[in-house]
Specification:
Blueprint: E1 14-25, E2 28-34, E3 45-46, E4 48-51, H1 58-70, E5 76-85, E6 91-101, E7 113-119, H2 132-141, E8 149-155, E9 161-165
Parallel strand pairs: 1-6, 5-8
Antiparallel strand pairs: 1-2, 1-4, 2-3, 2-7, 5-6, 8-9
Length: 167
C-alpha cells in the first residue's frame, strides 16, 4: 500500500510517540528522580524513556533510550501498556510502556536526574510523577503472558489529570 493510502490528514488527531521503561531487579524498580532544574517533573520520580525517532520501532527506541539515559540494557523488554494522552490540542502523546529485567550493572550518572533502584514497597512514600501511583502498580503486577493494558489520560476543566483504563 502506498503512503498516500494511509489516510494521513492534518485535521485528524495525531500522536507523538514516546517510550516509558521500568526496569526491575529482584524487588526493586529503577526510577529517575528529575533534576531540580528540569523543566518537567523536577524532583519527581519517573521511569526512563523518551521519543521514538522516525524509522524506529518501539523496542529499538526503548533500548536506545534506556542505554542513552542509564547505560543499562534489559535482559528482555515487553510491552505492558499503551497510553494515549489527550492534551486538549490537535496533537496528543502516545506512550508505549515497557518493562524489563536488568540483572547486572549500575546506572551511569545522568543529566536528567538521579537514577535509583527503589524497593517496590517504598514507592507509595515517594514524590512520583502524577500518573505513576496508578500506572506503575498495574505494570508491575501484569503477568508476563497478559495482554498490554490500555489507558487514556485527559484533563478535566480544572486541569486535573483523569486516567481511564480500557477493558
Amino acid at each position: 500500500m502506498p503512503a498516500s493510502d494511509q489516510g494521513v490528514f492534518r485535521e485528524r488527531y495525531s500522536l507523538i510517540p514516546r517510550t516509558l521503561i521500568f526496569l526491575t531487579r529482584a524487588d526493586k524498580v529503577l526510577l529517575l528522580k528529575g533534576a531540580p532544574d528540569k523543566k518537567l517533573w523536577a524532583n519527581l520520580y519517573n521511569g526512563v524513556g523518551g521519543h521514538i525517532e522516525r524509522g524506529e520501532d518501539v523496542i529499538t527506541a526503548a533500548r536506545r533510550e534506556l542505554l542513552e539515559e542509564t547505560g543499562l540494557q534489559a535482559d528482555a523488554l515487553r510491552l505492558c501498556a499503551v497510553v494515549t494522552i489527550d492534551t486538549g490540542e490537535d496533537v496528543g502523546i502516545g506512550i508505549y510502556v515497557l518493562r524489563g529485567e536488568c540483572t547486572e550493572g549500575e546506572p551511569l550518572p545522568s543529566h536528567e536526574g538521579a537514577l535509583e533502584w527503589i524497593a517496590i514497597e517504598e514507592l507509595a512514600g515517594l514524590p512520583l510523577v502524577e500518573d505513576l501511583p496508578v500506572l506503575l502498580p498495574r505494570v508491575l503486577a501484569l503477568p508476563p503472558d497478559a495482554a498490554p493494558l490500555s489507558a487514556v489520560y485527559g484533563y478535566d476543566q480544572a486541569g486535573k489529570l483523569v486516567i481511564r483504563f480500557g477493558q
